[in-house]
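Budget justification aside, the reviewers requested a transparent look at the raw inputs and outputs of the sequence design task funded under Objective 1. We therefore reproduce one unedited record. The lines immediately below are the structure tokens for a 681-residue chain.
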């Protein structure tokens, strides 16, 4: 935080220079403190939740972040127009932009964050390493020099030894970062990192670090004020990541001794004081198996995962930020801070884990969580979200929809609560990673806290294993499908019915069930036939599955909740239908099964398409081959960028590209045909 007189003057109006869940979160705390709130928005967010909840809102510009949320002059002007005395940057966008802080200082507006000098000190990761060495903070071996010649960087990587980690010097949030496993992969990785870094930060400088093969990502929450006080609010384990972005976080970190916690905490405070830090910050460490820890970087802002720290300490970190910005001293000293219980945070993304985590877009037809029905205590479950039912998820910003945070007396209890809360979370209309989060949270290795930063890659075989369905799951899906058919077939006249009606005979329907991934090819080995019989609409179904018969009843409860009773065993679950796909969710996980009438099955196979379509809305970054050029299966053809991440389209088979439909820089929509591809003879 800048040390100017305006920074120690209380303010009554706060502008939040961000969007989504963090904007809503900050405004909620600000209003509780009696402050008036101002939101800013782009054209894509004109009716977003953070805009609807603010006392005032000011348009910044078009949808593209560089023309709206990243425009320093537009944000400053919005503060002046509304009389905002302070600006909270949230995270991302301008939160670590020193020029933005300087512009606010010049305008006499308080920045709720560190001084520009501290941002600069940690924003250049190479220079930050040198500062940390001076402060006695352990460092990972690597190259942090100014010479950015390709050949030099390659030789430095060779000296360090593979695998190495390429990181954007000005980066963060996993952008411009790649693991390089072998020398021959270095140049392609360097080129990709530079493109991402240029797009995200306007900077192509890289640093190289030794990539530890089994480290944990443990970070320490620090807080400093303008009176020279500094504390650490303990640590968080953020090891479960994909593409270097966190998925599940928890606090405190499992297996931490009191001595190691103190050593890491004190090192983090030394790091903050070395650069004259003020406000909330996070010092990130790599924790090796032998207990050694190494400084990775410092995020000079509030972190996405800060709620788990709030849960175990009982402190509102945003309120701390605002009070420190008003010139107050820290509310508590180190010896007054304690840990109570355990907390998890699960990040809900609009993405498809089954398609390499491709971002998803669309309209949220439903976004709700049934705490009461799931028997959850609202004091132990918190949903920080920037969306509601009816909102549109666009291609322009990060795909995170919400954060689900839970608390328990210990890790096991908190994990149980997390699983129940994930099961109670109902999101429809947009593909999300909710089911994947359940698979993570119920995975034996995660339950046993066998953590490192490659957790997902190491457990990929089990996390993405083909679903093995139980007879109870088949029966539940069949029961829901049969009841739908029965309702569709209701008629006063038996001659109008097509449900297997027989005079003086049981009412019988035969349906098939299979995994949705094989619904179009009708793999005979994956199809299960269920025969449902009942005497009348009021009687239970007798389901015959593979020679076993079960008596089944279905009761509709509130919302999407149903009770399925099989042979007297009653289970409550969330169930819905997406077309002919039955989706069933309970604390054990999610089940999806495709069903249809047995006489509707077409056993024909679909021929492979000769086109490649865009899996999501985005921008074409580069065409990697020429039209007519021969390619092999899996060879990269073009690069797309969406939601701040690059995605490479590869050849589906040996052959050649007949023509591209788009050029670099063009915007494409989900489903657009990108190119014509001709398979080899």
């Amino acid at each position: 935080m800048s040390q100017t007189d305006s920074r120690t003057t209380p303010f009554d109006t706060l502008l939040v220079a961000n969007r989504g869940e963090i904007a809503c979160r900050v405004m909620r705390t600000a209003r509780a403190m009696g402050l008036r709130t101002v939101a800013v928005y782009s054209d894509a967010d004109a009716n977003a939740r953070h805009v609807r909840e603010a006392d005032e809102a000011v348009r910044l510009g078009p949808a593209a972040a560089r023309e709206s949320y990243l425009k320093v002059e537009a944000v400053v002007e919005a503060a002046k127009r509304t009389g905002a005395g302070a600006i909270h940057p949230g995270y991302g966008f301008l939160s670590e932009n020193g020029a933005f802080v300087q512009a606010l200082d010049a305008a006499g507006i308080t920045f709720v964050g560190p001084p520009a000098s501290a941002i600069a000190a940690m924003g250049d990761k190479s220079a930050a390493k040198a500062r940390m060495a001076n402060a006695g903070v352990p460092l990972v071996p690597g190259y942090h020099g100014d010479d950015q010649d390709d050949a030099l960087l390659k030789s430095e990587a060779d000296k360090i030894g593979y695998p190495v980690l390429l990181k954007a010097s000005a980066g963060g949030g996993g952008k411009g970062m790649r693991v390089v496993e072998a020398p021959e992969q270095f140049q392609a990785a360097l080129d990709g990192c530079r493109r991402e870094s240029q797009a995200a930060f306007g900077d192509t400088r890289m640093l190289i670090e030794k990539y530890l093969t089994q480290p944990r990502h443990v970070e320490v929450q620090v807080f400093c004020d303008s009176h020279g006080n500094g504390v650490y609010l303990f640590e968080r384990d953020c090891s479960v990541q994909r593409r270097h972005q966190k998925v599940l976080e928890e606090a405190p970190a499992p297996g931490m001794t009191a001595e190691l916690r103190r050593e890491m905490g004190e090192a983090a405070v030394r790091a903050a004081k070395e650069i004259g830090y003020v406000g909330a910050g996070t010092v990130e460490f790599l924790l090796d198996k032998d207990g050694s820890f190494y400084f990775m970087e410092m995020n000079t802002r509030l972190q996405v995962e800060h709620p788990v720290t709030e849960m175990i300490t009982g402190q509102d970190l945003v309120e701390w930020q605002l009070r420190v910005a008003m010139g107050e001293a820290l509310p508590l000293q180190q010896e007054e801070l304690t840990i109570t219980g355990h907390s998890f945070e699960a990040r809900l993304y609009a993405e498809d884990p089954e398609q390499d985590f491709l971002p998803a877009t669309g309209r949220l037809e439903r976004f709700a969580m049934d705490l009461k029905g799931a028997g959850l205590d609202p004091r132990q479950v918190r949903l920080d979200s920037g969306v509601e039912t009816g909102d549109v998820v666009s291609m322009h910003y990060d795909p995170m929809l919400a954060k689900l945070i839970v608390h328990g007396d210990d890790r096991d209890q908190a994990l149980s609560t997390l699983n129940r809360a994930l099961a109670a979370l109902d999101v429809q209309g947009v593909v999300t990673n909710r089911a994947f989060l359940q698979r993570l949270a119920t995975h034996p290795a995660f339950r046993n806290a066998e953590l490192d930063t490659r957790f997902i890659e190491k457990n990929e075989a089990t996390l993405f294993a083909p679903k093995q369905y139980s007879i109870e799951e088949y029966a539940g899906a069949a029961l829901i499908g049969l009841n739908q058919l029965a309702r569709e077939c209701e008629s006063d006249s038996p001659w109008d019915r097509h449900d297997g009606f027989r005079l003086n005979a049981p009412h019988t329907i035969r349906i098939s069930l299979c995994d949705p991934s094989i619904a179009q090819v009708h793999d005979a080995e994956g199809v299960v036939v269920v025969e449902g019989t009942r005497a009348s609409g009021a009687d239970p179904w007798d389901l015959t599955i593979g020679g076993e018969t079960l008596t089944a009843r279905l009761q509709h409860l509130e919302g999407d909740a149903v009770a399925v009773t099989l042979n007297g065993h009653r289970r409550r679950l969330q169930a819905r239908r997406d077309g002919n796909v039955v989706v069933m969710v309970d604390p054990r996980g999610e089940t999806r099964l495709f069903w249809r009438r047995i006489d509707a099955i077409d056993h024909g196979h679909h021929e492979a398409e000769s086109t490649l379509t865009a899996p999501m809305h985005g921008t074409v970054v580069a065409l990697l081959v020429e039209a007519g050029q021969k390619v092999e299966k899996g060879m990269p053809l073009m690069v797309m960028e969406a939601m701040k991440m690059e995605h490479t389209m590869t050849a589906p088979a040996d052959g050649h590209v007949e023509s591209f439909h788009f050029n670099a820089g063009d915007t494409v929509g989900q489903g657009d045909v990108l190119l014509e591809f001709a398979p080899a003879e």
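The chain has a mean pLDDT of 89. The chain has 17 helices and 39 strands. Computational costs for records of this kind are itemized in the attached budget.
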